[in-house]
Specification:
By secondary structure, the chain is of the alpha/beta class. It is built from twelve helices and nine strands.
Length: 274
């Protein structure tokens, strides 16, 4: 089984994160699963922090074109699944109309796993501007009633990066913020928000805060992809093609529209492996 992993970061800009990500993938994937890591193209963002762009809905949407191209290329290159490893899952519903291979997303996969671990889950993010986006995405999954809330951790991107060399202080701050959220919202499961934080926590064994489980978002996304591939192979399950939200345009028309809007070049470039 081969799975295309897609990150919202330029992995070359964040070597410590990329290295930890690679090691954690090796730990959680099945022995017969090959995960090929892909990041955004070098130069996608003005600096190493994607949040400066993702704070704006139009820029977030435009960067999603790389995710669309990645999914199409994954199917063309014979990958068995496409794993969108970012909490917002940009264009995930639209991407599922363009490919037949399973498409899993960190936000959706983590929320679905959380629903099996408790009654109401809380989402924590270090990007304060994305709190409303995360809440909107959870609503799109039909899980608003199972979500206790979305909250800022009280620290930001630079503190998370520093945690890759000195994790202790960051983990302590996360646990303090988690306890505050549990107390204020009644959440009995937690999702660690953006992937760099989730991976850091999981790689250092943070799976609970007191009696509350903390979902390993990367593991949830990869394991969901493996399961969906297994179900497709064993019972023929695949994405719905009924109705406007699921109807699949022809590949020819998709290519024409991408060329018209000057994003077709993304299809001609190789996937940005790391």
């Amino acid at each position: 089984m081969r799975i295309w992993h897609q990150s919202f970061t330029v992995l070359e800009d964040l070597p410590a994160y990329a290295d930890t990500l690679r090691k954690h993938i090796a730990k959680i994937a099945r022995p017969d699963t090959e995960i090929v890591m892909h990041g955004q193209r070098i130069g996608t963002y003005p600096a190493d922090y994607p949040g400066d762009d993702l704070a704006y809905s139009y820029l977030y949407w435009m960067h999603g074109n790389q995710w669309v191209a990645g999914a199409i290329k994954a199917q063309q290159q014979g990958f068995d699944a496409y794993a969108m490893c970012t909490m917002p899952n940009p264009m995930i519903r639209e991407i599922r109309t363009l490919v037949d291979i399973p498409v899993t997303g960190y936000g959706e996969s983590s929320a679905l796993v959380a629903c099996q671990l408790g009654q109401r889950f809380g989402v924590m993010t270090f990007i304060e501007q994305l709190v409303p986006l995360y809440a909107d995405r959870i609503k799109s999954y039909g899980l608003s009633e199972r979500c206790a809330g979305v909250a800022h951790t009280g620290f930001g991107f630079r503190e998370v990066l520093a945690g890759y060399s000195d994790p202790g202080p960051l983990i302590e701050r996360f646990e303090a913020a988690a306890r505050a959220m549990i107390k204020s919202t009644g959440a009995d499961v937690l999702i660690g928000g953006s992937m760099p934080l989730s991976v850091l926590l999981a790689s250092h064994g943070v799976s609970r805060v007191d009696n509350v489980p903390v979902v390993d978002g990367l593991a949830a996304t990869i394991k969901m992809a493996e399961m969906m591939v297994d179900l497709r192979r064993s019972s023929g399950l695949s994405v719905s093609r009924h109705g406007w939200f699921n109807a699949a345009p022809t590949p020819k028309r998709v290519a024409e529209v991408m060329e018209f809007y000057n994003v077709g070049h993304l299809m001609r470039e190789p996937g940005h492996e790391n």
